[in-house]
Amino acid sequence: MDKILIIGASGQIGSDLTIALREIFGNENVFATDIKQPPQDVLESGPFQILDVMNENALNDFVVKNKITQIYHLAAVLSGNAEKLPSKAWEINMKSLLSILNLAKEVGVKKIFWPSSIAVFGNTTPKIRTPQLTYTEPNTVYGISKLAGERWCEYYYNKYNIDVRSIRYPGLISYKTEAGGGTTDYAVEIFYEAIKFHKYECFLKEDTVLPMMFMPDAIEGTIKLMEADSNKLTIRSSYNMAAISFSPKEIAEEIKKHINDFTITYNPDFRQNIAESWPQSIDDSVARKDWDWQHKYSLPDMVQIMLNEISKKLGKNY
Ligand code: AKB
Questions:
Q1: Closest Cα to residue 303, out of 222, 234, 244?
Q2: Which atom of ligand 1 is nearest to the CA of 184?
């Protein structure tokens, strides 16, 4: 039986992924860890321990003691926050990945999942249906760290046969745990403000189109990639994976269909430049072919579910 370690289990992806993996592998076989407390369901449904991924000895001990066979390393400093603390972000994003890859090599962890991002692309990348293989000249610290990470993942696969798998996530939208410090976070914040105040001030311009995905699609895709036959995987850096694309204006119009008096204003900050360097849509045909990836949720589906779930969470009708 696989023993799975989730690093970053209290974060936006981790809090949903932990529950989904526990349903498949059994609660006691999925070990959630983070430097902060997780949501209640993660805490109550299986093992949780405070663990700092930057503490290599503690990480090694944990993996050996619990006979871990798979690691999902989800801890990272996202694009907006990384611009404020470049050296720290580089250290956290890179050192943690390298120590996990080395650990896998030394103690024989079977599989590793590490998230990359559309942030690996930059101003020279084609913006529409960005191909799997294309120019990757990121101009953010986060993007540079994700691109370097992709190269390390492929290197460890080729050189040491470490079975690392990775996805270039677009902006992820979920109702359970809020994202922190990213450029696509507006598409989560907007729901909280719409329900609470019927208005939102967006930090991106109205026509800034970005690739996005509803969290249930991201979780399903991630597990599908990790369960895929290794021989079918042709990409060992990171797979493009896409679902929907929209601008702040388009999501606001969709919200207005449910909250008639909702208004949005625009006050772009430093994240506008980051967003403008990223693609508007992604060609994920390689993922669709190699491991049968397909998304389910459209923008209207997602908006409906987000409004319902966040209004339940806030105890406030919209
Ligand atoms: C961010 O905005 O930094 C992240 C990402 C696209 O990787 N959501």
A1: 244
A2: 2
Helix pair angle (141-160, 86-107), 10° resolution: 10
Ligand 1 center to 268 CA (angstroms): 17
Please compute the mean of the pLDDT values over residues 137-159 and round it to a whole number: 98
Query: Does 142 participate in catalysis according to the annotation?
Result: yes
Tell whether 236 and 259 lie within a shared domain.
Answer: no
Ligand 1 pocket: which residues have CB below 6 Å?
Answer: 78-79, 117-119, 142, 169, 171, 182-184
Helix (H) or strand (E) holding 29: none
In contact, 23 and 84? CB cutoff 8 Å: no
85 occurs within a structural domain: yes
Domain range for 269 is 172-212+243-281+297-314
CATH code at position 128: 3.40.50.720
Q: Which of 72, 142, 169, 200 is catalytic?
A: 142
**Number of domains the chain is built from:** 2
Same domain, 94 and 147: yes
pLDDT digits (tens, 9 = 90+) for 173-216: 999 998 789 999 999 999 999 999 999 999 999 999 999 999 99
SS3 for 248?
helix
User: Is the same domain home to 95 and 143?
Assistant: yes
pLDDT tens-place string over residues 46-63: 999 999 999 999 999 999
CA distance 60 to 7: 13
d(CA 6, CA 214) in angstroms, rounded, equals 20
List the beta strands (DSSP E) in 98-177.
Answer: 111-117, 163-169, 171-173
CA of 182 to the centre of ligand 1 (A): 5
